Amino acid sequence: MMKGALISVPLLPPIPSKIRFQYNPESVKRSVKPNYYGAGKFGSARFSGAPTENISLEILLDATQGQLKAGLPPKGIKPELSALESLLYPPMLQVGINAVLLAVGTIEAVPLDTPLTLFIFGPGRVVPVRLTGVDVTEELWDSKLNPVRAKVSLSMDVVTYSDVGLVSPSGAAFVVHQVGLESEADSVKTLP
User: Fold this and answer.
1) Residue 58 three-state SS
2) What is the pTM of this model?
3) Nearest to residue 128, comparing CAs of 91, 90, 168, 188?
């Protein structure tokens, strides 16, 4: 069985991290809204870019069986929670480099780039996303108060070429997604 995942590729160093879902979520909520620009002739609207899409889901993290059966030292699910939460933070290496460059007068303060993050939920469902929220409900802890079971609600905005341009990594990933979407839609048109 395929498992859903988030893959994040930071700029410095460009080493991808993969956060595989332990269990696939029971449901995935998607909201897609068109990006219209005014009304054209005869009252028709025009597209001003790709639609806006939001994805939300809840995943379960549980270390009560896996680590015990594997004979691993009990860490709980802190590494998995840290990996998810760190997607919301600018990387410290980038923060430090910018602080040094700012201190010596080389650059002005600039917003830090986010890593390329992909939400993967099957072969034809790979989209670049920007996490907008990680809500964690810890439900069980070990004797050292390491969380061993939690429900995590993830909220994401899909990043499109309208947001970042066609030639960026996220824009290119979205183009691949949209081409696949159009191909799937074409298969419905050819049904008898």
Assistant:
1) strand
2) 0.84
3) 168
Nearest-angstrom CA–CA distance, 85 and 154 = 10
CB 6 within 8 A of CB 28: no
* Domain extents in the chain: 5-34+47-189
Distance CA 68, CA 71 (A): 5
C-beta separation of 140 from 67 below 8 A:
no
CB atoms inside a 10 Å sphere around CB 128? 25
In sequence order, what DSSP letters do the residues of 77-134 get, joined into one string?
Answer: THHHHHHHHHTTS--HHHHHHHHHHHHTTSS---PPPPPEEEEE-STT-EEEEEEEEE
pLDDT in tens, 29-59: 999 999 888 766 666 778 889 999 999 999 9
Nearest C-alpha neighbor of 146 from the set 61, 89, 71, 87: 61
Bigger pLDDT: 98 vs 116: 116
Strand pairing class (45-47; 36-39): antiparallel
The letter for the amino acid at 137 is T
Task: Count H helices and E strands in the chain, helices first.
Answer: 5, 9
